[in-house]
Specification:
single chain, 462 residues, alpha/beta, Rossmann fold, Helicase, Ruva Protein, domain 3, 5-stranded parallel sheet, 19 helices
């Protein structure tokens, strides 16, 4: 049976005729085969290229049959690339040497002269085992990185129903999608929904916050690096594009990406190829990209702060999610959803009475759905009588303008400081919740706090 995926095998033997025979046999299985005539050449090739398996002879000096050179090679490979399966090739009947090879790190051995069927079966089995192990590790990594599905979408309003209809039409395609909207409206929920209803649903969904990656780590995080590429690169590491290969890559806060990194991202989107730091070859990746932003990208393009060509590359389809205040029909069903979810999580069962519902409907929700979730959770935690008391929701203070009445006139800088301090005071110094309520990203509120000398508890720093 011929494999349906491209596999590279490295055959190492000091006899060229053996190398040619292995090439002829394994290429008939659909595998690419490279040949090295000595251990040092094999190690050099491993440093430059990825292989699925190595076939390694045990003797390279004509005057010895000890197999020590082969054992040293297996040990070196096991140390440098422990996930690469090595199949030892030994002279027929060399049982002791075969055992030593297995102890050195080989996964199996083949006697020379070999039986073609046995050799092919061993190679195929070990490649499939290594691939299965790699996938297991890959998805374990993904489970750590992925923020996960945030549940079903609540859509009572016409606006959200129209968005779901758009998702239904766009999800099965490979189109790049740009999701826009204020912080907290549920952009990642829609991205996850697009993935789950696509042909890639059984493949990885990788979410990455573009605003949280330091510029100097961008290439390593997104494209990966090879072992030794820089001081702390003790082992090779796949980037987010490779982790999402075959699936969906969600680029959140794309508007925060610096221009230098925009050019690098654009190149990958145009070519479909990435190159690890320290690597010497390009890797093809099959990734559907979904981007999201709360920024006005056309305005940033007009100011030359965001690349026009990258904007058009990302904006094949745009899904604009309206803020919660513009779809009040969704407030009650969302509140009941969060009440059930947080109640179950904290082991409490609460009811939503008319007074609490009225308070929720009056609120402007600057932090949108995320803020609503926080507010409901706060009420669940503080309630003592099984009902969601409006006084426990913490909404009363936010209904006022916090000192900014209709007759108030002050410099915008002072107004911004006042609003940040009010938000921090409301959320007991929690900058992340304050940012959500103000419609800011986490990095944006920290920049402003540092600028104005504001601490997390709302007091002015020294």
């Amino acid at each position: 049976m011929t494999t349906t995926f491209e596999v590279s095998v490295l055959a190492v033997d000091d006899q060229p005729e053996i190398g040619q025979a292995l090439k002829a046999l394994l290429r008939r299985q659909g595998w690419r085969v490279s040949y090295a005539s000595a251990p040092d050449q094999a190690l050099a090739m491993l440093a430059e290229q990825d292989f699925a398996l190595m076939l390694a002879d045990m003797n390279y000096s004509r005057d010895t049959t000890s197999g020590q050179e082969g054992l040293d090679l297996i040990a070196a490979v096991h140390d440098r690339t422990p996930d690469l399966p090595v199949v030892a090739m030994t002279a027929w009947g060399s049982v002791d040497l075969a055992v030593s090879a297995l102890q050195a790190g080989a996964v199996d051995f083949v006697e020379k002269p070999w039986d073609n069927t046995r050799l092919v079966n061993i190679v195929r089995t070990q490649i499939e085992r290594a691939r299965a192990h790699s996938n297991e590790q890959r998805f374990r990594e993904l489970s750590r990185l992925q923020q996960g599905s945030q549940g079903r979408v609540i859509a009572e309003s016409d606006a959200m129903r129209n968005i779901l209809a758009m998702v239904e039409r766009v999800a099965p395609t490979s189109a790049t999608v740009l999701i826009t909207g204020e912080n907290g409206v549920g952009k990642e929920v829609i991205a996850d929904l697009l993935h789950r209803h696509s042909k890639r649903a059984d493949q990885p969904f990788v979410a990455v916050n573009m605003g949280s990656i330091p510029a100097e780590l961008f290439e390593s995080e997104m494209f990966g690096h090879e072992r030794g590429a820089f001081t702390d690169a003790h082992q090779a590491r796949a980037g987010r594009f490779e982790l999402a290969d075959g699936g969906t890559l969600f680029l959140d806060e794309i508007g925060n990406l610096p221009q230098a990194q925009q050019a690098k991202l654009l190149r990958v989107l145009e070519t479909g190829c990435i190159e690890r730091i320290g690597g010497s070859r390009e890797r093809k990746v099959d990734v559907r990209v979904i981007a999201a932003t709360n920024a006005d990208l056309p305005a940033l393009v007009a100011k030359d702060q965001f690349r026009r060509d990258l904007y058009f590359r990302l904006n094949t389809i745009e899904i604009a999610i309206p803020p919660l205040r513009k779809r009040p029909e969704d407030i009650e069903p969302l509140a009941r959803h969060f009440l059930d979810r947080h109640g179950a999580r904290h082991g409490r069962q609460l009811s939503l009475d008319d007074q609490a519902l009225e308070a929720l409907k009056r609120h402007r929700w600057p932090g949108n759905v995320r803020e609503l979730s926080h507010v409901i959770e706060r009420g669940v935690l503080l309630s003592q009588d099984g009902r969601l008391d409006p006084a426990l929701l913490g909404l009363a203070a936010s209904e006022s303008t916090g000192g900014l009445g209709t007759d108030t006139v002050m410099p915008l800088v002072e107004a911004e400081q006042l609003l940040i301090r009010n938000a921090l005071a409301r959320f007991n110094g929690d900058a992340e919740q304050a940012a959500t309520a103000l419609g800011l990203s986490r990095s944006a509120i920290y920049r402003r706090m540092q600028k104005y000398g504001i601490r997390g508890n709302g007091e002015t720093g020294t």
